[in-house]
Amino acid sequence: MSTEKRSIAEKTAQLDELVSWFDSDAFELEQALDKFKEAEKLAAEIEKDLLALKNEVNVIKKKFDEA
Amino acid sequence: MDESSLLLSVSDFIAVTNQTLEYAYPTVSVEGEVASFKVNQGKYVFFDIKDQGGSIGCFMTVWQLRVPIEDGMKVIVTATPKLTQWGKFSLTVRAVRPSGEGNLKKSFELLRAKLEKEGLFALERKRRLPEIPHHVAVVSSTDAAGYKDFIKIVNDRWGGLKIDVAHVQVQGVGAPDQILRAIKYFNEQEPEVIVIIRGGGSADDLSAFNDELLVREIAASRIPTLVGVGHEVDVSLADLAADVRAATPSNAAQLLVPDKNEIIRNVRHRVTLLLPRTIQALERGQQNLRDTLETALAAIRRRYDWYDDHIRYNRRVLSELDPRKVLARGYALIRGDLTVGKAIEIEKSDILIKAEVTHVDRKA
What we know:
By secondary structure, chain A is mainly alpha-helical. Chain A has helices at 8-23, 29-52, and one strand spanning 56-59. Chain A has one domain (3-52). In chain A, helix 1 (8-23) runs antiparallel to helix 2. The longest helix of chain B has 62 residues, at 260-321. Strand 1 of chain A pairs parallel with strand 7 (162-167) of chain B.
């Protein structure tokens, strides 16, 4: 799945995973910089996605004054 | 008989009178105190409304009675005046509502107790709203300030929602039925939550949300409901029947969706914390390395010291065993065959002597 097509929820889940990695036993100094860059990129994408989303408000035509 | 007068049958007279009444007063609202309230066969409601100057009989069906009333309560009836076939004048009531704050409160408490007893407000009936809905239905008046606040706050907090709005009357006699129909309509659609909102107002303005049928409709809704009516201090029965109660329309928006700005701040903060964490890990690694090197160096030092001590000791022992030291003390070293007649060499600290063995005796 490409990065662009992933939902905000999926990106947030991936960010959670990356952040957890830093606190886990799997942490390795050699990989930390790459993981950090990846987290930074994801955070920027999440922010961009959140700010780009707009709501669609639709006042329905049906009248409710009569049964 | 007066030639100019109209001759009518009784039935015709009643019909003409009713036509005249209908033309003159298609709908009247009459305020008075309830007396002789009774329900017949569980279907028909009879009572009188009276004041100091008179009394009128009223008739309505049970399903039209949307708020509890009792004798002594001051009410406003919306009705059509009618002359019955028995010649009795009465009001055919379409709606009745308590008049004045005291009576509204009394009616509210009566209905609240009744519905509470039925379990309509029970906590175990409450459902959770979806964490982040995608399709939201809103029942409100699009002209109301409360609705505008709600939409503004939702737009500020979150995006990507499909919001279907049913524009309804949120106060007055027709409001409960309109709201109720909108809830029914959305229950035939697939929104994930129905939000019912209305801004603040007087107790009378908000009384639509204490309508029994409306409250029952909210409680029976297949789709989870979020109700935000009035100000924080106002409590309506619609609030109590809802799955989630918001204090105000703005609060309803806050309960409905998370705040994207808060999420963005949180995401940034979490990432910002990763760099110090990495630096900390790097420093920890460096410290471990230093500790290991120091441990190794200490071990080397200890081993060196051991060898050093050992060598010094051996040197001291060797030094004590040096034959030159013995010779210096006056002893002599003899080399050669200690047999009589053989030549030997005698070494002292400062001279060498060549000699011949002349006599060898064993010590006793």
